[in-house]
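Can anyone check this?
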Amino acid sequence: MYQTLRTLLSNARCWDTDSERSYQDLFERLDTNKDGKVDVAELREGLKAMGIFRQGAAQKIVSSGDQNKDGCLDFNEFTKYLKEHEKKLWLTFKSLDKNDDGRIDSSEIQQSLAELGIGVSGEDALKILQSMDIDGTMMVDWNEWREHFLLCPAHNLEEIIRYWKHSSVLDIGDSLAIPDEFTEEEKSTGGWWKQLVAGAVAGAVSRTGTAPLDRVKVFMQVHSSKANRISLLGGFKQMIAEGGVTSLWRGNGINVLKIAPETAIKFMAYEQYKRLLSSEGAKIETHQRFLAGSLAGATAQTTIYPMEVLKTRLTLRKTGQYAGMFDCAKKILRKEGVKAFYKGYVPNSLGILPYAGIDLAVYETLKNTWLAHYATESANPGVLVLLGCGTISSTCGQLASYPLALVRTRMQAQASLEPSNQPSMSSLMKKIVAKDGVFGLYRGILPNFMKVIPAVSISYTHILCNVKTTDLSV
């Protein structure tokens, strides 16, 4: 059937009578039960037969073209959808055709990807070109471009590459990654807030599931040393002996509560910083995205940082020490003053740069490597590849920023000491290295890495649900 589609469309031109006849022939072949309508199942089978099946494409095409909301497309709806889709594809083709010669070569693909912040070599751009080149000329004309993307819901290069949106970031309690990018369509239709809400829910589930590991991590960061070695199992035993099994979830309530304000502030700040750093209408480049994301992260952390301090105190509290979150806040304010709510703020803010920078750099490198070697037929990497790249980049970011995270936690926990006994960031770091060596800056990193395992599973489910929600939306 793929060969049939090629024959039907090879001589057609956009929006003329030949296209109309081609659409009629294509519609009749897709309408396998001959009821004058094409439903999702028929379209899905047709796409599979053509060898151009994409996850969720059939549902999205039907949803986009279904004007009377009967769950399928009649010929008029099918034709209107394809004509409108062709117009968008034509605009994309023209934007790629830099020298306006009616054909796209590898250098133009390379330039266009660079404008989207995706750097590929000339050889890699040639491989992408070959996946669309039918006649072997090493150039793609309008017919080849249209045939390749006609029954793909994505209609511009940004949407074609948007599979690589960093939606696989793992939430293990430290929200330091660069925020997601949203298209103008997602912003105008409200899809962005649905994804943010879905991400927040997934984050809440992830943090609750990994709360015992998070608590033992904080416990080891503050109390473990060369003289007082605390193993993973030993830490669990001490906490259970002191407060029972339920004590393993101390501090989780506020850790979940801070997701919503932090996510919202980071997203809004990120959009504003992007506008300030990039010229109007221009694509934001990778270094601008990193800077905007880092500034947005710093803005969000500054706003919700008192909640971070409360989370640490509640995580480390002994049985009966605080009646709850508000009681903890009142006692800290009364005894230590407002400054206590910003202890450890400097190392926390400094930690954003290595985490976000390395996370983004590693992710972009892995993404470009996959596109260069495996994107022969589709830019869609699949859920497992996304998760693999996200896990590796997030782990590298953790390794770089962990010493600062440990110092931050120590300072938050020691804020109840007398002012004269409260060390600065540099002096505390020197003290830890002198006493425990460089490894002392990585106390508690084992349970932190162990949190990745359940987080990956939850992130996998979140991505699948997110894809399903996106496919079902118009």
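Reply from J.R.: I decoded it. The beta strands are 37-39, 72-74, 103-104, 140-141.
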